[in-house]
Design goal:
Elements: H1 2-19, E1 26-27, E2 41-43, E3 47-49, H2 51-67, H3 71-92, H4 109-135
Antiparallel strand pairs: 1-2, 2-3
Helix pairs in contact: 1-2, 1-3, 2-3, 3-4
């Protein structure tokens, strides 16, 4: 179950990272200005992204796919993703930090998306991982 989560999350993040490079899928940006304005806009009209954000999505996707090969790797991915995304959701609420110092937008709809991702990843990293470990014994 945890390995499937890592695989599916990896695929989703790779796809989202790739979609962020298609200007036709980006609406004009709203919110604070960024130092990195390449590919800056709202993906599908909802989620603020830019070049840095897209690259991070690609990296997380690769991490998820690479970690899905083993139970321990998938658990580490889920737990790491949960911690990272809690931090990003909190940063999105704080003016000044909600652009990661001008590098990537973390505001708007990204806040609830990051918080939701953190909750799902925490479930798989701690709850489902415990169940999977018990079943494999």
């Amino acid at each position: 179950m945890v390995r499937t989560f890592a695989r599916v999350a990896g695929i989703i993040y790779l796809l989202v990272g790739i979609l962020g490079f298609f200007p036709a899928l980006l609406s004009p940006p709203m919110g604070p200005d960024l130092a990195v304005d390449a590919f800056h806009g709202r993906l599908l009209g909802l989620f603020p992204v830019n070049l840095t954000h897209n690259i991070v999505h690609l990296a997380i996707g690769a991490w998820g796919l690479a970690s899905a090969g083993s139970f321990s790797g998938a658990v580490s991915f889920a737990r790491g993703l949960a911690v990272l995304y809690v931090i990003l959701a909190i940063m999105g609420l704080i003016p000044g930090l909600n652009t990661m110092f001008g590098l990537a937008p973390l505001h708007g709809n990204d806040i609830w998306l990051h918080a939701g991702t953190a909750l799902i990843a925490a479930y798989f990293g701690w709850g489902a991982a415990r169940d999977d470990a018990t079943l494999s014994r």
